[in-house]
Amino acid sequence: MTETIDLKRTALLTIDLQNDFLHPNGAYGRAGQASAAISALPARIKPLVDALRTKGGTYISAQFTLVPGPGGEPLIAPHLKKLRPFLGKGDFAPGQFGHALVDELAEADYTVEKVAYSAFYQTRLEYILRALGIDTLIVGGIVTNGGVASTVRDAHLRNVHTVLLSDGCAAFKQEVHDATLVSLGSITAVATCAEMLEALS
């Protein structure tokens, strides 16, 4: 990692590091969908959050959201319901335990609720970036081929520079994670958490 980081114009953005994905009592944990690679992310990203905070930087958490509909049933896309049939009432609902950022990283400076893969799609993220004068995002979270990839691609379309944390994101399959890093390499800088921590120092 050789590029200079201007903290006034840079934010750390994590994708979907929430209790419903990572905590044993969350929706995925209860359904037996836990992943060691995903569970390891908060501890790896926490030093970056601390380093940013020490220097007055900004930490933004984008969090997947299932809006409760009639009778409390979540408004869920058909393809997601097919992929994750265990999702139900209360899962990823705003204000609930499962929707919250994991304790190890809480609290973010800004929280963005998102209803699809990309943290830019129908959210206030772009407004926050413009209001703060931020044009560079350090990106980590889950899953590499889903929310992370969609967000990085949408940032690229908006001329927002990104640095993707190669070991600060994960997928449910290592080969999918690895292939996605290769695919995204044409539109984003890629660095390890340790390299980014050194750059921040």
Describe this structure in words.
The chain is of the alpha/beta class and 201 residues long. 36% of the residues lie in helices and 19% in strands. The mean pLDDT is 95. It has helices at 19-22, 27-30, 36-39, 41-54, 78-83, 125-132, 144-157, 174-184, 193-200, and strands spanning 10-15, 58-64, 110-114, 136-142, 161-170, 189-191. It is globular, with a radius of gyration of 16 Å. The protein has one domain (7-200): Rossmann fold (3-Layer(aba) Sandwich). Helix 4 packs parallel to helix 9 and helix 7 (144-157) packs parallel to helix 8. It is built from nine helices and six strands. It has a six-stranded parallel beta sheet, with helices on both faces.
SSE class: alpha/beta
The domain count comes to 1
N-to-C series of helices and strands: EHHHHEHEHEHEHEH
According to CATH, the fold-level topology is: Rossmann fold
Overall mean confidence score, pLDDT: 95
